[in-house]
Design brief:
Structural class: alpha+beta
Bound molecules: zinc ion
Distance between the termini: 35 Å
CATH superfamily of the largest domain: Hsp33 domain
Oligomer: single chain
CATH architecture of the largest domain: 3-Layer(bab) Sandwich
Number of helices: 9
Number of domains: 2
Strand order of the largest sheet: 7-6-3-4-5-10-1-2-9-8
Shape: globular
Order of helices and strands: EEHHEEEEEHEEHHHEHHEEH
CATH topology of the largest domain: Hsp33 domain
């Protein structure tokens, strides 16, 4: 499999005050958006996805990867933006090894993000799931993640994500740059260093400064965030768009349907066609395979 070139870096300052994670997610976001746009285009009469929604989608994917990087490497994160008015949701999944996927669900033509809730689900080392929900105050994805981090008390720090889109003449959407950072505050942090970093991050709150850093490389962004501070790189790993769907998982999800529904599908005798909402892969299930689901194994 080809790697996208997207990378996530981790570093720690030598005084033990900060851990910084920087991410360039341009290609990953680009492929995730292309998959969602293709599915909307393929469904007749559906309105195109708005630039606002696509931008939020790109930011949510980026934030999910950054947040997962603060945890143990084997854990996964799912971030969901749930509209307040029932118009839909945006989902981002970040898996160990950097596999990333997402989807946009709309109940109608428009998906409204005003007053939306950010729901975070992360797997814990003991295998259970931890859920937390916060209101996206101010409406931005960055602020949503920040208030989740404050409320969960897992990570003290500052996060910023961005996704810069351009609409081409033919109506297609291009991702110019996507990425972001987390600056985690560690127990060794000294007051004067916190003030220095707080001042510095004010510059990076401007979208342009973030994108200048992101667009060049996650290394440049790291150097700029930690300018003048001694630090040690800890990790450098690839990130890519990759779905986790498979024929086995499709069959497993069908097996959870009520037996009466499965029997009816078998009686109809037609192939069942299912497309993955994340990546658009088509799965065709033959009635004989369905019959197997109703019989105890
Ligand atoms: Zn898939």
């Amino acid at each position: 499999m080809m790697d996208s070139g997207d990378r996530v870096l981790r570093a720690m300052t030598d005084d033990g005050g900060f851990r910084v994670i920087t991410l360039q997610s341009t290609q990953t976001v680009s492929e995730a958006i292309a998959n969602q746009v293709a599915q909307v285009t393929a469904s007749e009469g559906a309105a195109p996805l708005s630039m606002d929604v696509l931008g939020a989608f790109g930011e949510l994917l980026t934030g999910a990867v950054l947040y997962r990087e603060t945890m143990a490497p084997t854990l996964r994160v799912q971030a969901i933006v749930q509209s307040a008015d029932g118009t839909g949701q945006i989902v981002a999944d970040s898996f160990p090894e950097g596999d990333t996927r997402g989807l946009i669900r709309r109940t109608g033509d428009a998906l409204h993000l005003n007053g939306a809730m950010l729901q975070m689900m992360r797997s814990l080392p003991n295998g259970t799931l931890h859920r937390g929900t916060v209101e996206m105050k101010g409406g931005s994805i960055s602020e949503g993640f920040m208030s989740y981090m404050q409320s969960s008390e897992q990570v003290a720090g500052m996060l910023s994500v961005g996704c810069q889109l351009e609409c081409a003449g033919d109506g297609s959407v291009e991702v110019v740059a996507a990425g972001g950072y987390i600056v985690q505050l560690l127990p060794e942090l000294e007051e004067n260093m916190l003030m220095l970093m707080t001042e510095r991050l004010k510059e990076f709150r401007s979208v342009d400064a973030l994108f200048d850093g992101v667009a060049s490389s996650p290394d440049t962004l790291m150097e700029e965030l930690l300018y003048g501070m001694a630090y040690t790189p800890l990790d450098d790993s690839p990130v890519r768009f990759k779905c986790q769907c498979s024929r086995a998982r499709v069959m497993a999800s069908l097996a959870t349907l009520p037996p009466a529904d499965i029997e009816e599908m078998v009686r109809e005798g037609k192939n069942l066609e299912m497309a993955c909402d994340y990546c658009g892969t088509d799965y065709e299930v033959h009635p004989t395979e369905l019959r197997g689901l109703t019989q105890p194994s």
